[in-house]
Amino acid sequence: MTAQRACGVDDVSVSSAVMVELDGIAVAIVKDSAGDIHAIGDTCTHGEISLSEGFVEGDTIECWAHGSQFELRTGTPKNLPAFEPVPVFPVTIDGDDVLVDVQNPLIND
């Protein structure tokens, strides 16, 4: 795994997201309502909108512009207008650091 530091664990609050750029890729680091941390592509596949500016509820993030929700574990859109998934990246927690591997995205379901 070619993971690199994206942010600190405490940099992301529960039910929120922050955007980081790793190897030129915009990534949303998201802490869901259970406190689990996810890394997904930050750009909505419908309207080129930053997902990290959206709303986190349960295990989804919603694009603020048009309301498409994406599952944090798979990147799969749950509703229209988006129909293409966003990439999901492996996350490792190393002490207080969130490490993300943008070179080996997980396969979308």
From TrEMBL:
Residues 4-100 form the Rieske domain. Keywords: 2Fe-2S, Iron, Iron-sulfur, Metal-binding. Pfam families: Rieske (PF00355). InterPro entries: Rieske_2Fe-2S, Rieske_2Fe-2S_sf. One of its GO terms (molecular function) is metal ion binding. SUPFAM superfamilies: ISP domain. Coiled coil: none annotated. This is Non-heme iron oxygenase ferredoxin subunit.
